[in-house]
């Protein structure tokens, strides 16, 4: 079943281009987006939504964080992202114009299920993004958009992450079409980029062996930091989570701008720091700021592993290793940048002789609160 791969996780990472392609299939046509699954909510209701809350746990929380950048930009509807297990215990403000979107690979995570039930009982509308047909969470929701990543066996989520971000992006685009906040041309441009993503992901996957070597010489590392900014920030968090989950290494993700407000104190000679570098073409010009963050921590002895756009010459003088990713726009780039981080965690755990598919103390889906 592993199809020649050493683990399910390795196999599932290799399936990411397909997971994206299948999640897009039938939902993007003629440069536009339509999710018939949302018909059960209806266009009038979608137009009256004044707030979106995305709830999930673990990796499924980071997909919400990722999608917030896109959904707010495209729809101008405020998006909050919250851990599902925190959500219902703080008396959240819910109205019929609140849409609570849950993200769950399994569709069975009890914390997330209880958040959805709470949202419904308190008058909000609910949408489930789920990878498992007929699971409990979609059954408890007003509408469901399935990701089509295929069964995910490894406990650490990989292909479900990218498929979930794609489904949330499609939801954002559908909403933007219904609400008229993006022009036809703008939607078509994003759709073209989404359709090009699987091939770009495949070129990142070709670097598996070189990332494996990197992991090999870092097997004794005790702590790894991950920095990202804007849409690269959730990916930094996800990179750190993967390393904790399967390699049992202390890892933390930070927003690069936060560095000087605390985390820079952690920088000591030799500490590996992965940096998700925004594109030099980024319209927010965050590239320069992240490069200067790199310079600051390099001066304090950090070893820099930069995930940067192909041909980004500005990072070269300061990075110990550059992992190049293909050109993509700001909101798409994180879907490419996450792959090297997943491979790194997989290979570091393997180099330590650990069972990557069944890490200690964790379950694929947690059906208790
Ligand atoms: C955790 C899993 O218990 O649940 C994580 O170990 C996962 O890998 C999280 O991201 C959420 O799971 P689901 O099925 O709701 O996406």
Automatic annotation (TrEMBL):
It is an enzyme of class 2 (transferase). It is found in: Cytoplasm. It comes from the Bacteria. The active site is at residue 364. GO terms for molecular function: carbohydrate derivative binding; glutamine-fructose-6-phosphate transaminase (isomerizing) activity. Its EC number is 2.6.1.16. One of its GO terms (biological process) is UDP-N-acetylglucosamine metabolic process. Keywords: Aminotransferase, Cytoplasm, Glutamine amidotransferase, Repeat, Transferase. The keyword Cytoplasm applies. One of its GO terms (cellular component) is cytosol. Residues 42-181, 214-359 form the SIS domain. It catalyses: D-fructose 6-phosphate + L-glutamine = D-glucosamine 6-phosphate + L-glutamate. Coiled coil: none annotated. Catalyzes the first step in hexosamine metabolism, converting fructose-6P into glucosamine-6P using glutamine as a nitrogen source. Homodimer. This is Glutamine--fructose-6-phosphate aminotransferase [isomerizing]. It comes from Homoserinimonas hongtaonis.
